[in-house]
From TrEMBL:
GO cellular component, one term: cytoplasmic dynein complex
SMART domains per the UniProt record, alphabetical: WD40 (SM00320)
Name this polypeptide is given: Cytoplasmic dynein intermediate chain
Family: Belongs to the dynein intermediate chain family.
PROSITE patterns to which the protein is assigned, alphabetical: WD_REPEATS_2
């Protein structure tokens, strides 16, 4: 580009800038004029000056101007027309300023200082020291491992046994047991040509004894919690326990009168809720005028509770009622009870059910729960003209006619409610004290064991019976004091539970051992256990003592799950009991 062209281009740019400045000035003047023309205060001042300097003229002369020359005539005052000032809103124009958008870029950096150098040096020195320490540890470990290898190699070289040492080993009981066992297995294997399912079966049961010696309480049961109420259960004996079929978490317990105080209710029944672990008080509290000797949930009425009393009355409570007292009760009469009622059980179906009760006066009554004024039927329990003082009662599984009675004289009796031989039909003699517990086998399976039942007594023993035989099949005699209760497991065919007044409770498994219990535990604080019960699902055991406390334990799955082998083993065990009894009779 030449110099002249560059000069011309600069002059063109200067002219263009000059034109832009003039346009900007004109725009500014127009805005100033518009602002001055729209200034109301200035307009008002000019109007006032015009009115004050000129005389009032006739509005017709001023408004009727026909030509521009007439505006120059002198205004004439008029007394008839008055002038008024009208204010009109001014137009406001706002021009927004031009917005300039700017950006800034900043980069943050760390300037090195002298301190960083010192820190890095310290870190290097620390890492070097750690590396040296690690190497020293490795060297020490190598030396230790070499020493251990040398010691083990030296110890592996043993001297040959002397003749005395060999003879001592051969004559030891441990070697004799091992040699007898292995030689028996080898002989079985050599002699048996056909395949045998259980060729290593041990009939001496020594393996089971060793396993039993290693079993701990925590492997069988686990303590859950304790139920006790200072106001309602203190100084009272737990007389009966039951659980609800409709609500398995609910536990019903009846209590005797307070042994330390004569005030308050004589009989108390409490419902505890095991679902809420931190709830210290019972879910429901019921009472009556007489000490409660037995209690039960109604199988077909989820809100009804039944209790037998020491006075012979039977009381009915309803959880739907706001009252703690019974909503119904029986009356003393010739047909009903007048002595303590120790046995209650609801039998039948949903549409046809009855409450069966027995008392120590030797009477059995059948009641309609909805009408308790008088019994539907009454049976005198006598055997060979002798009244039977019933302490316990049980019905075999799926049975509503035949029943079993545990009496005060130590015998068990079998009878029926209906038929030609209504009443007591046979007896089972074996105990030397009152029968304190009675439980029928109630586990359904491929093999029928419904004829089996257990009894406990003050003679320190528990006996196993069959309805088909008059003598007991087996007697369990490991307790050192009164056995107060016994209860079959509701889910396992060979397991049952016992308790005594020393605070001891035992869990038995007949398939495991018939001479010693699977578990034997004694409670602390010198308490006497009076009642024991399995929950309906077999997952818990409930114990009641003489201080008004309920002890709850969770049961291991091994005591809950059963299979066909358990039924077969129980059948074999019963056959062993019968053979042993036959051998004893021959001797």
């Amino acid at each position: 580009m030449s110099r002249e062209q560059l000069k011309a281009k600069i002059e063109a740019k200067a002219a263009e800038l000059k034109n832009r400045r003039e346009e900007r000035l004109q725009t500014t003047k127009l805005l100033t004029i518009s602002r001055e023309m729209t200034d109301l205060n200035k307009i008002f001042e000019e109007v006032d000056m015009m009115l004050s300097t000129s005389s009032l003229a006739s509005s017709s002369d001023i408004l009727s101007t026909k030509s521009p020359s007439s505006l120059q005539q002198k205004l004439r005052p008029s007394t008839n027309i008055s002038l008024q000032v009208c204010r009109q809103p001014s137009a406001t124009i706002n021009i927004p300023p031009k917005e300039l958008i700017t950006y800034s870029k900043i980069v943050q950096t760390i300037e090195p200082t002298e301190q960083d150098d010192t820190e890095s040096n310290d870190e290097c020195q620390q890492s070097i020291s750690e590396y040296e320490f690690t190497n020293s540890l490795k060297q020490q470990n190598k030396q230790i491992s070499l020493q251990s290898q040398t010691s083990s190699s030296s110890s592996s070289i043993k001297d040959e046994l002397t003749n005395d040492e060999r003879e001592r080993i051969l004559q030891s009981a441990q070697f004799q047991d091992f040699f007898s066992r292995t030689s028996l297995l080898i002989e079985r294997s050599l002699r048996e040509t056909q395949k045998v399912d259980d060729i290593v079966k041990d009939y001496s049961r020594k393996d089971l004894d060793r396993q039993k010696g290693r079993m701990d309480m925590k492997d069988i049961i686990k303590f859950d919690r304790e139920y006790f109420d200072e106001d309602w259960s203190h100084h009272r004996l737990v007389t009966c326990i039951d659980t609800s079929i409709y609500h398995p978490e609910l536990i019903l317990a009846s209590y005797s009168e307070n042994s330390k105080s004569s005030g308050g209710s004589n009989g108390v029944a409490l419902i505890w809720n095991s679902k809420f672990k931190s709830k210290p008080t019972p879910e429901y509290v019921f009472n009556c005028q007489s000490s409660i000797t037995s209690c039960v949930f109604s199988k077909f009425h989820p809100n009804i509770l039944l209790g037998g009393t020491y006075s012979g009355q039977i009381v009915v409570w309803d959880t739907r009622s706001n009252k703690r007292t019974p909503v119904q009760h029986t009356f003393s009469s010739i047909l009903s009870h007048t002595h303590p009622v120790y046995g209650l059980q609801v039998i039948g179906t949903q549409n046809a059910n009855n409450l069966i009760s027995v008392s120590t006066e030797g009477k059995m009554c059948s009641w309609n729960i909805e009408m308790m004024t008088q019994p539907q039927e009454s049976i005198d329990l006598t055997y060979k003209t002798k009244p039977v003082a019933a302490m316990r009662m049980a019905f075999p599984i799926n049975e509503v006619n035949h029943f079993i009675i545990g009496s005060e004289d130590g015998q068990a009796y079998f009878g029926s409610r209906h038929g030609n031989k209504a009443g007591i039909q046979s007896n089972y003699e074996g105990h030397f004290g009152p029968v304190t517990g009675l439980s029928c086998h109630n586990v359904n399976g491929s093999i029928d064991f419904s004829s089996l039942f257990l009894t406990s007594s003050f003679d320190w023993s528990v006996k196993l019976w069959s309805l088909e035989e008059s003598k007991s099949l087996h007697s369990f005699e490991v307790n050192n004091d009164y056995v107060t209760d016994v209860h079959w497991s509701p889910v396992h065919p060979s397991i049952f539970l016992t308790c005594d007044i020393t605070g001891r409770f035992d869990i038995w498994n007949l398939n495991y051992d018939s001479e010693l219990p699977l578990l034997s535990t004694t409670l602390d604080r010198n308490v006497a256990l009076n009642k024991c019960l399995w929950s309906h699902n077999g997952q818990r055991i409930i114990l009641g003592d003489d201080q008004g406390k309920l002890h709850i334990y969770d049961v291991n799955e091994s005591l809950i799950n059963s299979n066909q082998d358990d039924f077969n083993q129980l059948k074999d065990t019963l056959q062993d009991f019968k053979r042993n009894r036959f051998d004893d009779n021959r001797i």
